[in-house]
């Protein structure tokens, strides 16, 4: 049986993907196709390149990414992410989809054409960064005269990109919606509104996952909690361990 992996966006919450993946790999899961949006695109690319979840976490904790994100002197965003290309090319020197060990598919929103674009051939690093450009925060990313922003604007769970290529979809979603957390700031209003908008478009795609992993504890974190990387990793890993009987049953059925 061929397993496909779909990874959502979610800002810093996407670090939990790594903990989930560590748990899945320990149980014996292997993936023949990966699709991802935003933070899920970065995680998917690094995994597809051969890095382990622990290695990716160490890269996140030791790489001063903020030094390579600079102010944008335009009206289209507060920050620019293009200088981060150099960082990722350090870890992905081939800069090519074809060089990855697992086929990878990245989605980004094309503002020029008003549609979703799936990148899965050719250069790798720039499409990956384009998928992460949160509108209003990052200036749109230019590739071949097109402007791109975060893939989550149109598709935060790109199941359909690989569902015809595999027999079983494992989806990892890091944006649980819980009403318990009160809204006390403008940032809170913006974040809750964004999650609601994305969630409404994602609900049907979540139902198409044969196995959906969505750690509920992630609702305690926001999309900018980058300094809590190890906590987020732990949340993903511990939740995946807690559903171990379901994982074993899934693998047993696949044999």
From TrEMBL:
CDD domains: Pat_PNPLA6_PNPLA7_NTE1_like (cd07205). A motif (GXGXXG) lies at residues 9-14. Gene3D superfamilies: Cytosolic phospholipase A2 catalytic domain. InterPro entries: Acyl_Trfase/lysoPLipase, NTE, PNPLA_dom. The keyword Hydrolase applies. The keyword Secreted does not apply. Keywords: Hydrolase, Lipid degradation, Lipid metabolism. A motif (GXSXG) lies at residues 36-40. Residues 5-163 form the PNPLA domain. The active site is at residues 38, 150. A motif (DGA/G) lies at residues 150-152. One of its GO terms (molecular function) is hydrolase activity. One of its GO terms (biological process) is lipid catabolic process. Pfam families: Patatin (PF01734). This is NTE family protein.
């Amino acid at each position: 049986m061929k397993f496909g992996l779909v990874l959502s966006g979610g800002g810093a919450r996407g670090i939990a993907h790594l903990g989930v993946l560590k748990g899945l790999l320990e149980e014996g899961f292997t993936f023949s196709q990966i699709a991802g949006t935003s933070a899920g695109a970065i995680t998917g690319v690094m995994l597809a390149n051969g890095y382990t979840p622990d290695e990716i976490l160490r890269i996140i904790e030791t790489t001063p990414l903020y030094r390579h994100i600079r102010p944008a002197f335009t009206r289209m965003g507060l920050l620019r992410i293009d200088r981060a290309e150099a960082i990722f090319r350090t870890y992905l020197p081939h800069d090519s989809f074809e060089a990855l060990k697992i086929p990878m598919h990245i989605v980004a929103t094309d503002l020029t054409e008003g549609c979703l674009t799936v990148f899965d051939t050719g250069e790798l690093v720039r499409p990956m960064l384009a998928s992460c450009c949160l509108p209003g925060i990052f200036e749109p990313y230019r590739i071949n005269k097109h402007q791109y922003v975060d893939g989550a604007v149109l598709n935060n769970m790109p199941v359909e990109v690989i569902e015809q290529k595999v027999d079983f979809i494992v989806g990892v979603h890091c944006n649980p919606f819980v009403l318990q957390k009160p809204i006390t700031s403008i940032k809170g209003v913006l974040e809750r509104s964004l999650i609601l908008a994305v969630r409404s478009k994602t609900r049907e795609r979540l139902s198409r996952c044969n196995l959906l992993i969505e750690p509920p504890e992630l609702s305690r974190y926001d999309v900018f909690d980058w300094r809590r990387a190890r906590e987020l990793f732990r949340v993903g890993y511990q939740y995946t361990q807690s559903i171990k009987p379901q994982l074993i049953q899934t693998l047993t059925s696949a044999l």
